[in-house]
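Thread: "does anyone have the structure for this chain?"

Original post by V.I.:
We have the sequence but no experimental structure in hand. Need at least a predicted one for the grant figures.
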Amino acid sequence: MGKTRRMMSVGLIGAALALTLAAPARAGETPTAAAGWQVTPTGTDARFRGLAPVDRGTAWAAGSKGTVLRTTDGGRSWRNVSPAGAGDLEFRDVEAFDARRAVVLAIGEGEASRVLRTEDGGATWTESFRNTDARAFYDCMTFFDRRHGLAMSDPVDGKYRILSTRDGGRSWQVLPSAGMPDALPGEAGFAASGQCLVSAGPRDVWLATGGGATARVLHSADRGLTWTATDTPVPAGDPARGVFGLAFRDRTHGIAVGGDYRKDQPSPQAGAVSTDGGRTWRPSATPPPAYRSGVAWLPHSRTAALAVGPTGTDLTTDGGRTWRTVDTGSYDTVDCTSDGSCWASGEKGRIARLATRP
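Reply from O.Q.:
Generated one for you, tokens below.
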């Protein structure tokens, strides 16, 4: 097992490193090198900000117009498994446990925020949560394991609201807010990539913010009961700026990406790194050159990660300190699996896998 994992890790890292040697590609194209993003046909123009690869063969994607797709053949074909009557919902996050079980989050004010769950590969769906508080707006969710998970809402009564499940998303309860620090004026989360709430290990979870005077990352070590907040160097001070995506490869090492999502605005400091579980953050010495909404560590690597956004994909090989753009296609989110595959998704039905070429 160990040897097999090391071989897959080396192969995947080699594929990502090959991207750095490629000539710049036109938007939506794969670089002409040994590896790159290979776009898979989805048959839809939905925008997929929710992505949950399970392994090299199985992945789920959730997006606009109530669309949910699933593949079990590595992206060669996708099956539309959208919940019936969900056309008006905006799915922004999906968490999948295997080829049959998945949970999707719809965003929006009031009852537009919902959670649905399937246990039969999307053939049928059950609504397990519908927000009835007009002040709440749910953005992201994460699971620690197959049973325990959280979802987060923008501040209600001055504090972020946390929703908890202990049964794999079949039922949800709002957690007490006593352990949550006050939100900053204008502060909120960004439902841009399903990565404003992420977890690592059995109890640690991080929440990304923007819109306030500073962009912050909140951390909980007890599954969302108590939290501490830390400023990051990612620019904020505007509703369009802040931390949009987080990735922790363990409970210590994290990367934050973000910026200003408006096309006509620069994002001069779009990346930051933490080596102490989010207690402190330092800016990337060479950050991504533009707004980035999603980030993921390469499997079994201590130093390599990918960041994506509407203007391209960036690669780091030194833990997020320096980044280099390796593709110019548009993606909103990225995720990698433990068996050695990376996936990305975004606008106009785009879902891709990072793959080597013969």
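V.I.: this helps a lot. Confidence is low (pLDDT under 50) at residues 1-13, 19-34.
O.Q.: and The longest helix spans residues 2-20.
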